[in-house]
Amino acid sequence: MGRPIETIHLPRADITAYWATPETGAFLDRARVDRRFASTTIEVHPGGIEAAIRSCAAARSPDLLILEAPQADEGFLADLERLAEHCLPHTRVIVLGAANEVGVFRAFVAHGVSDYLALPVTVPDLALACGRALPTDGAGRQGRIVACLGVRGGAGASSVTQTLAGLIAEDLTLETLLADLDTAGGSLGLALGVEGQQNATVEAMKNAERLDQALFDRLAARPHPRLAVLSGHPDLEIGTATLASLMPAFAATCRRYFPMTLLDLPRGWDGLTRSAVGLADAVLLVATPDLTSLRNARLLLAQLAALRPDDEPPHIVLNQIGLPQQEQIAPARFAEALGKPLSARLGFNPRSLPGETCKIADRRLREALLPLATSLCGAQMRSQPAPRQGLGRLVARLLPVG
């Protein structure tokens, strides 16, 4: 596997990008709708730096400019100085160019550019560069969200999700939110013995815009000091389309208050599931070693690859290995047929009991899932580097004093 993709969620900011080649334009259009840029207002225009100069001369410059430089030469550096005359001091600039040389990077930084990225570049790398350039206002340390779903009914996805949440809260000592998004028939509350008369998940999603720590504490159960659980009595009135529309605000609130959030999703590929996995930092699929799971897992992997082209691949847990009187596929053959490595292999345990999420007595289960729990947490606790100065430094050099 490649390097872990760092979690970055940008602060509210106005970003305008100007491309010079169609390939870069298509890339910027893809980045514009990526979840990492969800809190920003981003516009993409053709015309390169000349278009940027005309726009900034006619209207207020944005918080961040992204410019493509087909030729990293003296002419482009001169154009940067022309651009600086029309930019506010706080405006930052990121340049995308073909040259991959340290000298080019240094020349741009000397002219007030916040960052230079050599093409081709990935959406996560662009998001990280934007995070370094923009003031974070705390957004750089926001939490991770993991979307968990079973590839078939009875795969044990809810049990695996509950166990992972307990490990993250207890062993990794991270404040964790576990939310049951199967609002019509989820069993998470029953399994943990914390089901109430109202559906806390629905209430939290409906009130996501005004959720604060006090309201979270009122709605969520606490089976462990570092684990908050949103579940409750099934709500048959609210549809998945409504929940899907509430998902972005709910996800943003979860990131703000919890280093880790695990979403226990209903089986199926509806609007709610698509919205949740599209917003998540990582996706966990739970399968059983049989032909139905193999077929469904292949279909889900194809859907996820199309929905999340710039994200880390899903983590796959193979559950209920060794279930008696069942014809099963060997784990190695299952992984080979799927074309993906398994993140964890869990044997069938007939003695597992509901409510063991935070009191995991099975040492083998702990040993099997703790590496996965650690991997899911990723680098979300790292601090972001201090933002670099923008074009204001160049403006001060160009404008006459007093």
From TrEMBL:
Gene3D superfamilies for this protein: 3.40.50.2300, P-loop containing nucleotide triphosphate hydrolases
Extent of the signal sequence: none
Family annotation (Pfam families): CBP_BcsQ (PF06564)
Keywords per UniProt: ATP-binding, Nucleotide-binding
Top-rank taxon, per record: Bacteria
PANTHER family linked: SEPTUM SITE-DETERMINING PROTEIN MIND HOMOLOG, CHLOROPLASTIC, SEPTUM SITE-DETERMINING PROTEIN MIND HOMOLOG, CHLOROPLASTIC-RELATED
Protein name: CpaE family protein
Species name: Halodurantibacterium flavum
